[in-house]
Amino acid sequence: MKPFAIAVHGGAGTILPHLLTPEKEVAYKSALRDAILAGEKILAANGSSLDAVEAAVKVLEDCPLFNAGKGAVFNAAGGHEMDAAIMNGSDKRCGAVAGVSGVKNPVALARAVMEKTEHVLLIGQGAEAFAKANHFAMESDDYFFDAFRHEQWLQAKAEDKMQLDHSENKEKKFGTVGAVAIDRSGNLAAATSTGGMTNKKFGRVGDTPIIGVGTYANNNTCAISCTGHGEYFMKEVVAYDVSCLMEYKNCSLEEACEMVVQQKLKAIGGEGGLIAVDKNGNLCLPFNSAGMYRGFVKEGEEPIVAIYQ
Asked: What's the number of CA atoms in the CB half-sphere (13 Å) around residue 143?
């Protein structure tokens, strides 16, 4: 039996102390802690890493502070299009959804794609029909309405541009949530969920639901969940690249993450970060932005949550 570990993230970007009120900072840290504890509870009861990452991400999807699920940003049409993915490291089974509306917990739908179909990725109306056929919880537009997100959208619409999730102070924040874990059996898993970019058009999809880009898990190496400017992460196939550096170049988890996040992404202007756990339970939470909402816990230790560099 191996000691378990779980890490979560709630987005990265220009997140600076003076841009968050003390109350908001407490709220973010509390939500991150709740997500960690939801996953930890499952792992401590000898549950699977797959169950743990799904549970952790669902907590973040249900919190309006994060750009996923209930807190998803508005697209150009004034609606919400959400993406999510989940992957099991022991057998590389995976599932993902993109451009879905009305689904309360997209990460759970992604898992259903993995477990109930022969496919990996379902999109749009087809994914929504699959959700309804499998009796998934669906919510009205009112559930996803958030006054702060709506103000973001109105501003972006007025300027006729697509924006990364940001606050009233216009700092850049890449709003994605995710979790990675290793259970006592040594199995790895990863899950990621997002509402994408404010005012996004033409069915834009980022890195989150693309296996190997925003989400990846392989028991031979590591589990990864990414957050950042998705187009850059897609160009570098970030999650799989970390795994490949470990598998083919014998890099440590820290060395691989450092090379991808601090060197390769930076070289092309990519901003953001990721959370990672390797087959030995080592954790790494690197980012090249000013901050990243993040937290983790290892078996027998107290949870740690942080926001800034």
From this structure: 16
Q: What's at 296, amino acid-wise?
A: F
| CA–CA distances in Å: residue 289 to residues 33, 187, 265 | 22, 30, 11
What distance in Å separates the CA atoms of residue 93 and residue 217, rounded to the nearest whole number? 9
Instruction: List 127's β-bridge partners, or say none.
Output: none
> What CATH architecture applies to the domain 5-308?
4-Layer Sandwich (3.60)
Q: What does pTM read for this prediction?
A: 0.95
Give the dihedral of Cα atoms 240, 243, 244, 249; nearest 10 deg: 160
Reduced to 3 states (helix: H, G, I; strand: E, B; else coil), residue 298 is strand
Is the predicted pLDDT of residue 146 greater than 90, yes or no? no
225: left (phi over 0), alpha (psi -120 to 50) or beta: beta
Report pLDDT digits (tens) over 74-85.
999 999 999 999
The string of pLDDT tens digits covering residues 70-116 is 999 999 999 999 999 999 999 999 999 999 999 999 999 999 999 99
User: Token digits for 121?
Assistant: 């990725």
Question: What are the residues facing 94 on neighbouring strands?
Answer: 87
Which residues fall within 8 angstroms of residue 75, CB to CB, at 6 or more apart?
81, 196, 198, 199, 200, 201
What's the rounded Cα separation, in Å, for the pair 177 and 293? Answer: 9
Q: Tokens at residue 127, please?
A: 């994914």
Q: Which residues does the annotation mark as catalytic?
A: 176
- For residues 285 and 9, the answer to whether their CB atoms sit within 8 Å is yes
Whole-number Cα distances in Å, 182 to 33, 56, 104: 18, 13, 26
Spatial neighbors of 127 by CB under 8 A, at least 6 apart, are: 97, 98, 99, 100, 103, 109, 113
What would the pLDDT profile of 13-69 be if each residue is shown by its tens digit? 888 888 889 999 999 999 999 999 999 999 999 999 999 999 999 999 999 999 999
